[in-house]
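Why predict the complex rather than its parts? Because the way molecules touch one another can change local conformation, and only a joint prediction can capture that. The input here totals 276 residues.
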Amino acid sequence: MTAFPVLAEQALVAQNIAFGIIAALMIFGALRVVTAKNVVHAALWLVCVLAGAAAQYLLVYAEFVAVTQVLVYIGAVMVLFLFGVMLTRARLGRESDLNNKNWALGIPVAVVLFAAMSIALIKGFKDEKLPGPDTANRIDTRLISDSIFGPYLLPFWALSFVLLVAVIGAIVLARKD
Amino acid sequence: MLINQFLILGALLFCIGVYGVIARKNAVLVLLSIELILNAVNLNLLAFALRDNNPDGHVFALYVLAIAAAEVGVGLGLVLLIFRNKKTIALDELSEMKG
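Output of the joint prediction:
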């Protein structure tokens, strides 16, 4: 890979442009999720954010997680959400009372939180660079599976039990008897 | 690419999610905001996995995905149950524990 420094440079520029476009899309989508007046629109904007997140995962060379994100989130979780909206919504279309009475309290909380975090990040990491396309060591699926079924086997089992309990619990909770 | 690009994007998504959890009244919309928060965490995990060249970040990102799926399943089950019993999912009308 290092034999083509010019190509790596161009790939880096392309990555930065892609990051900017996708990040803008994600931020706009996230703002629409928390401000939309229609529950279904909020859920569909969340699809946009999740797809953007999957694209960002590709930019940090996490292909397997990106594909899993598309399958699990956009494929399964969003369908669940739309079913939840369908089954719980009293009326169709715009609703005026989706926000709390003191919703404006959330704005200063979020702004202060973001200011604190971004100051800490900028002071902490300054302009530290991620490995570029020519220097990054790819973490492929084999390495991930070696990790999951090696040192992280016990959490993996625990996680499968969590999923089993969640499935059974959701059925028990939502069942009409 | 700077690592701060991804970390600050994650921080921004996290804060938008926190705003949503505080501001929203509809229980389904609160769950949607929690998904935003979980995605911000995943973005950070994967950026650090690339920085440190370590697969642990990927493993934890996958665990977060699985936990999020379980959380949505149980959460929507609870929301359905509340809706069936109370005919509303507005969180401020469910103040049963106020004295």
